Amino acid sequence: MLAAGLSSLTASACFLQVRVACPNDTTAAGIEVCIAGVGCSTTDELGLTVPIDVGGLGTFSVCINPATLPAGAKLSPLCKNVKVESDAPPVVDFVLSGDFCKPPPPQGECWMTGGGTLGKPKTPDFSFGGVVYPGCSPKAADGGNWNVIDHASGLHFQGQHIVVDQCSGAPTSSPRVNVRIIDFHGEGIIGGIGGNPEDTVPVTFVGRVIDNAEGGAGSDQLFIEVKDAAGTVLKIGTSAAAPATISTGNLQIHTSSCGK
């Protein structure tokens, strides 16, 4: 279900994805998530819903059904107003608390969810969002789906086949993960949007995310370089060693389900 939802992303649709989990990544399948005026979905074993097509840009009320929370889990608030401002909205995180969250964070490799913008909030240079290696699995949605909108150039990049190269970095307590850097590469497509007549063409890409703090705006970092046959067509950050700091949103590294 997750793979089908992720692979169905298109440059003309607006998809919103939700994750419900503890700070240490403990979560459960079957938590109901409802978007007012759109519909409901349930989380999988990673706490993720399938990407939900909200039909366009705007502000949406996203709520969790408290009757479907696992025993010992608490959640406040149960609802969030989420503003979708681009074709690449962030993954919306609801953070659980309570006795359900007491087990220590799992060890192993990593995967990543996130989204946000770079540049001025009202007129960002880039918007980005998606999932890389959901549940540490290269099979789920062919390694994930990572989107970047280059607003100045009118380009939409989709990473559709993703391979994680390594997870590294010192452990952090906020967020509670045993690594904080994920490096990945893959293949995808890029094409024109918003009046840009560029045809959609195949591309390759490399990326790095650094999860520096919970609530990543102004702290978390992103590097993406996308190339077609002629060379670089989209780039965020100078290099993997000098990534850009995101302006809004969050980049979250997870270790749940890894090493299994």
Can you characterise this structure?
This protein is an all-beta fold. The chain has one domain: Immunoglobulin-like. Helices cover 2% and strands 47% of the residues. The protein contains 1 helix and 20 strands. The strands form 5 sheets. Strands 9, 10, 11, 12, 15, 16, 17, 18, 19 and 20 form a 10-stranded antiparallel beta sheet that branches. A 4-stranded antiparallel beta sheet has the order 4-3-6-7, with no helix packed on it. Strands 1-5 form a two-stranded antiparallel sheet. A hairpin with a 4-residue loop joins strand 9 and strand 10 (124-132). The longest helix is centred in the first third of the chain and has 6 residues, at 2-7. Residues 1-12 have low confidence and may be disordered.
Q: What is the name of the CATH architecture?
A: Sandwich
Determine the CATH superfamily.
Immunoglobulins
| Approximate helicity band | under 10%
* Estimated share of beta-strand residues: over 45%
Tally of separate domains: 1
CATH top level? Answer: Mainly Beta
SS element count, helices: 1
End-to-end Cα distance: 20 Å
